[in-house]
Input
Amino acid sequence: MKQYKILKDGKIILSEIPGQYAGWNGGSKSRRIFGKLDCKSGMRMRKENRVFFHTLEDAVIQGYRPCKNCCPINEDDFEGIKYLIIEDSLEGFYNRH
Output
């Protein structure tokens, strides 16, 4: 049975369910990006550099920004998580460095 590394509250847990989002390090450990499970950018990353998130909030709390290629969140999603980030717009969140 396949096990997925789920990042939750700063800890890795194993789960049979991958969650809603995949996260990866975008070239360096400081550039954390999350996207859709089938995002081509994330799928190119080494498996050891990928983690999964059960929810959008989990990804945001861990400091990940959305992928510019697969665009995993929209304005409605942003409204639900904007209290968790410093950016005041969806565009600003996507362009976080």
